[in-house]
Amino acid sequence: MIKYYDAQQWLKERQPKRAKFPAVLVAIFVTLLTSAVAGLLVGLCFLGTFWYWAIGIACISLPYILMDRVQVRLYHGYVKGKPFWTLLKYAFSSTDYRPCYAPWWYWRWYYWW
After folding, report:
1. Which residue has the higher pLDDT, 4 or 42?
2. Residue range 58-111, pLDDT digits in tens
3. Predicted confidence (pLDDT) per residue in 49-59, tens digit
4. How many Cα atoms occupy the beta-carbon half-sphere of 14 within 13 Å?
5. Burial level of 27, CB count in 10 A (0-12/13-18/19+)?
6. What gap in Å lies between CA 72 and CA 96, rounded to an integer?
7. d(C-alpha 85, C-alpha 81), whole Å
8. SS3 of 16, please?
9. pTM across the whole model
10. DSSP secondary structure, 47-77, as one string
């Protein structure tokens, strides 16, 4: 079952297992680290122009990571008390909190792209 992001439910959280501020820091840090690692891996293939590739791919991958709402799953998984490795698997492979688009939106995106 796919869970969709619900801002009202997020505001109703009363007693998380972990503090919310460290959860925000984990969500921000892991999200930025992921895009940086993607850039560095591609940059290693082109050592002559390493920084152009590293910065370029990192800047391109960050919006896609944000659109998939990885940071939201990192936040919620950390607050729920998931261990680190389980948290990473949950954040990057789960379908929870993914945005839901109507079929017409996909057609419009494909048609105008």
Report:
1. 42
2. 999 998 888 888 898 999 889 888 889 999 999 988 877 776 666 655 555 555
3. 999 999 999 99
4. 0
5. buried
6. 9
7. 12
8. coil
9. 0.68
10. GGGHHHHHHHHHHHHHHHHHHTTHHHHHHHH
